[in-house]
């Protein structure tokens, strides 16, 4: 299969963000195999372009419970909110500037899969450390990622793993690791949760240096029976037993499917992706390659079948139109605020299930807010900033339109208009453009069309 313009746009949109015409051009004419391999190779080699916020390199801050009074705790909470927003803005900047957007999309995917919130963790530094774990394994071994997240201090705090002791078992992590992280509902028994909780007991978090430690005297070292097999399971042994269940590979493959293909997996193809994941030694990149080269991914029914998340809409619109801020360390803060207003506040998922996505992104209020965002963005191009004092925002409409054979000050003919619509929308426009619309006004109008919300 050789990629047409439409094929290349579909691939780059699903694995990253909608490309600009300039970004799209090098992919047209590649074979599907070459394009997918190029995407995955670039993502595996990707590294952050910008230094993270300064606070991530500072000593771990004193926990709220150890501060001397309420005034100190209030100041610490305010600082944590600022730090979390700065961290989100930094990550969005990485998404905006990366030459390998699949890398950031996979980190975001795992952030939602292993959902953890700073509101309970109470440490933006700890959330950054967890994000680096997700980044390290984003396209590597799911088994290594699962084992790492089970002893990540932020996760231990969020799902009460640090409170799980042999003398008083806490089942929160055991339940969620089965239902949400590895197997899915209906694939385990209550006894499996109880036995796994015993296996996970004994891990604690030292908040002074943000390290996880196993306390042998708090760990239940006795025999446990998991899925019909008995052994003196510890945390690693219990996780390996979960991965040995046939449902595990199908569950992870299904999550990848709903992220990159469509809301409802196709059983036969899903089974092939699951088999590839399992047979490759839990290699995420191998499973993703199998998925992206499947007929189901390229099928007409899969095109424009998903809804952009707030992050995809906000940072993706900047990428799609190649809009750039003048040098300003706070330039992405308005984008972080906009994403949060639309329902996706990075590092603050709604609960352990993460953001449900798809049609949950859209209701009468959020659709209006989405249109307001793009309207403000285009107004920001004209005014010099997304928010007052937000820093210069630059977009060269002529340069953007040139690869499409169009000009910012000239009304396009029918064929050129169709190319412009295709470059902006994932589906035909709901509201046809009025005659005489040109340049920036045309792109603004297309961004306000309901089809702009699809991918």
Secondary-structure topology with pairs:
Elements: H1 5-15, H2 21-24, H3 32-45, H4 70-97, H5 101-113, H6 118-121, H7 124-137, H8 142-150, H9 153-158, H10 172-182, H11 190-199, E1 203-206, E2 211-214, E3 224-226, E4 229-231, H12 235-243, H13 246-260, H14 267-279, H15 284-292, H16 295-298, H17 310-320, E5 324-325, H18 333-341, H19 364-383, E6 393-394, H20 397-401, H21 414-424, H22 439-447
Antiparallel strand pairs: 1-2, 3-4, 5-6
Helix pairs in contact: 3-5, 4-17, 4-18, 7-8, 8-12, 10-11, 13-14, 13-15, 14-15, 17-18
Describe this structure in words.
A hairpin with a 2-residue loop joins strand 3 and strand 4 (229-231). The protein has helices at 5-15, 21-24, 32-45, 70-97, 101-113, 118-121, 124-137, 142-150, 153-158, 172-182, 190-199, 235-243, 246-260, 267-279, 284-292, 295-298, 310-320, 333-341, 364-383, 397-401, 414-424, 439-447, and strands at 203-206, 211-214, 224-226, 229-231, 324-325, 393-394. The chain is globular, with a radius of gyration of 23 Å. The longest helix is centred in the first third of the chain and has 28 residues, at 70-97. Helix 4 crosses helix 18 and helix 8 packs antiparallel against helix 12. It contains 22 helices and six strands. With 455 residues, the chain is mainly α. The two termini are 21 Å apart. The strands form three sheets. A two-stranded antiparallel sheet has the order 1-2. A two-stranded antiparallel sheet has the order 3-4. A two-stranded antiparallel ribbon has the order 5-6.
